[in-house]
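Hello again,

I reread your note about wanting to compare the complex against the isolated chains. To keep things tidy I'm splitting this into two emails, and this first one only covers the full assembly. Below are the input lines as submitted, including protein chains and any nucleic acid or small-molecule components. They are followed by the predicted structure of everything together. The single-chain runs will come separately.
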Amino acid sequence: MTSASFHATGDVVDTSGRRGAHELLALRRVPAPRPGRWLASAFLLVLLAQFLHGLVTNPGWEWPVFREFFVEGSIMRALGLTLELTAYGTALGFSLGLVIALMRLSGSWLPASVGWLYVWVFRSVPLIVQLLFWFNLAYLYDRLSFGVPFGPELVSVPTMRLVGPMGAAVLGLALHQAAYAAEIIRSGIISVDRGQVLAAAALGIPRRRQLSRIVLPQAMRSILPNAFNELISLLKGTSIVSVMALGDLFYQTQVIYGRNGRVVALVMVATIWYVILTGLLSVLQYYVERRFARGGSRALPPTPRQRLRAALSGTGKAAR
Amino acid sequence: MNTPMVEIVDVHKSYGATSVLKGVDLVVNPGEVTVLIGPSGAGKSTLLRMINHLEKADRGLVLVAGELIGYRRAGKHLRELREREVLRQRTGIGFVFQDFNLFANLTVLDNVAEAPRSAQGRPAKEVYPLARELLERVGLADKADAHPRQLSGGQQQRVAIARALALEPKLLLFDEPTSALDPELVGEVLDVMKSLAATGTTMIVVTHEMGFAREVADQVVFMADGRVVEQGPPQQLLRTPAHERTRAFLNKIL
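Full-complex prediction:
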């Protein structure tokens, strides 16, 4: 170490001799001033206050109407339908998506090509077109039959009975979702280090077990953020079923404002519900991701609750 | 002489236009430690992976304890075995990778217990005590509940050895087990391997650790350009190699 004086931007400090250094070591460290940050924060706070003030004072928002309809019976039933469609669409979509992803990754050319074809077709056709198609399936085939291919039929049912509006909606959403889910799952699987499969194969672990025990749990780390994106997008996307006069959340608010003309208040009813549901899903996402993060890094990040507790007990830095 | 543990007959392998193995013959007797040395690209790792059919030979045969690996004779053909049958054959052959390949999502204990449970279908209450015992043997009993990435490289490789031992294999293959380790961690892994050799486990080890070869090997095999150049007991091959090629290689690394 040199004992010459040392200057960058500040004072010229003489560190020659132990006394000079001791004096510096005793000083308390404070952060650099950041006036820009303060200015930007103040600006944002003013904007936020203005916006909130507007929400409360502008009578155009019609909060009394909002309150009247927010948990009203028909809205609650419509909310139930939205949740039902989202649940079916996600469950069926991701199940089929897993199958298609595995087909695409198959070493055999026919399944791989069929998988590729599926993704191509169902990503190409707009969801709304697909829904109308399934809804009108009865025009194309008025009866659906099950039996030996090209041979005798065993059961035959009228198409309308099997594929009603709800069936068409679920079918359309699930098939559409499956194409995207397949690509998300495939990307997750190919992101897992090849050595993991090699080691599993060297140990004689059965193929199916390799997938369920080793590969998929690790693939989940990159699948989950994208999957939740899709889930949230589907939650709002279900509003498209209103083309088939299915009473989902958004359709029901339309029906009501068509009657009473209170457009803004009712759109807000739907919006706030979507915001709440997305919020719940985001919280769920955090915990699900955390569960699958085990083994990914040396230590898990603390949950918000753990972080809060650490901050309150004054050990915030240590906990991180 | 009894049936050799490993018998490799005229094995060839190429990737596209690149010929990696050009007719390799090798015999390993039960209880022996064979060390494979040679410059990179010599085909050592490919040969090792062929012994448990992670790589398929284009020509030639691999037999382990007299059993043809990866194929069966069907009339005038050699028919490749179904995946299930290959997986069964592999449970008798432990493999330790250069970069460990521990299952990142499982705890250390589950890494060791996984294959006995799912590949051999043994009950958990029998497998977990065995897994703990093996971790004890490699000196990592206290790390049973850790995840692999929380361990040092040397510890991970010791877990990988315990994992390979859990199937109670008749043969252990090591593919440069210390090459991915910091120098100060190499010793702990070699110590575990030496203790295994002392118990009479048949081992084939690809390595650049000449000290290990000198001390533990029953035979050293020098490979270059996809062929076995020469082989013999370590004192002879490492001190007085017969081939110029071997001499040049040893001069470079010693």
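For quick reference: Chain B touches chain A at residues 52, 54, 83-84, 87-91, 93, 95, 97, 99, 101-107, 114-115, 118-120, 147-150, 163-164, 167 (CB under 8 Å).

B.
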